[in-house]
Write a structure and sequence with these properties.
Blueprint: E1 2-7, H1 14-25, E2 29-31, H2 32-41, H3 45-56, H4 62-72, E3 83-85, H5 91-100, E4 102-110, H6 113-121, E5 123-126, E6 132-134, E7 154-155, H7 162-176, H8 178-184, E8 189-193, H9 198-209
Parallel strand pairs: 1-3, 1-4, 2-3, 4-8
Antiparallel strand pairs: 5-6, 5-7
Helix pairs in contact: 1-9, 2-3, 4-5, 6-7
The chain binds adenosine-5'-diphosphate and adenosine monophosphate (AMP).
């Protein structure tokens, strides 16, 4: 099993790229954010424990996240590797991951902080297939209809507001960004300029993955 990690600040475009890379590589997207939101909606023990951290824009404790991942990668679709999106976010998470999966590429989608608030505050997703859109930068082709599944059911995230974004960015800089050096020292870190149009970034990532 060999997997890849999509790395970057909140709103960098990890989920957007993950959906496109899955289409090309077949690697399933494993988003800890999506898993936690599902747990919160289902009011599971994990969801109840995670909710206050997510609402405040803080990282959920490592032991909760690591338990979710250990369980997820036992699924059949993970046998040939996965694409982690939003995980790992701390050095202890990366150390735990190193014990259970081999990481061939960590792709960092680099976007300056001043772009992040506008990206996150304009984000909406399809409530049925989870396709990611943006009010101005990446709207649906036909207003109110999902391009991927024709659904008319869209959602906005509770934590996608200007106040929480600033807390999420601080958490990224303080707790997550040190992972760039950690993975660079292990020879698997690749940066891409994420402040460009979506297809150009996808093309760069696919080129890196065949290296
Ligand atoms: P992340 O998963 O890293 O939090 P998303 O993929 O959800 O980020 O993207 C955040 C927002 O930015 C979404 O509304 C998405 O449509 C938009 N977006 C993604 N990539 C780009 C891009 N290259 N240029 C402009 N907007 C983008
Ligand atoms: P995301 O969907 O990746 O933007 O994550 C939304 C929120 O879920 C974050 O602000 C954190 O509160 C929590 N979260 C997601 N992934 C992790 C992780 N790997 N470690 C800690 N908290 C996480």
């Amino acid at each position: 099993m060999s997997s890849i990690v999509l790395f970057g600040p909140p709103g960098a475009g990890k989920g957007t790229q993950a959906q496109r890379i899955t289409e090309e590589t077949g690697l399933p997207q494993v988003s800890t954010g999506d898993m936690l939101r599902a747990a919160v909606a289902a009011k599971t023990t994990t969801g109840l424990a995670a909710k206050s951290f997510m609402d405040a824009g803080q990282l959920v404790p490592d032991e909760i996240i690591i338990a979710l991942i250990e369980q997820r990668i036992k699924d059949d679709d993970a046998k040939k590797g996965v694409m982690y999106d939003g995980f790992p976010r701390t050095i202890p998470q990366a150390e735990a991951l190193a014990k259970i999966d081999q990481i061939s590429h960590v792709i960092a989608i680099e976007v300056p902080d001043e772009r992040i608030v506008e990206r996150i505050c304009g984000r909406y997703t399809c409530g049925d297939c989870s396709a990611v859109y943006h009010d101005s930068f990446n709207p649906t082709s036909k207003e109110g209809i999902c391009d991927s599944c024709q659904s008319t059911n869209f959602k906005r995230r509770a934590d996608d507001n200007a106040d929480t974004v600033l807390a999420r960015l601080s958490a990224y800089h303080e707790q997550t960004s040190p992972l760039a050096t950690w993975y660079d020292e292990r020879g698997v870190f690749f940066g891409v300029d994420g402040d460009r149009n979506i297809p150009d970034i996808t093309s760069d990532i696919l080129h890196i993955l065949v290296k």
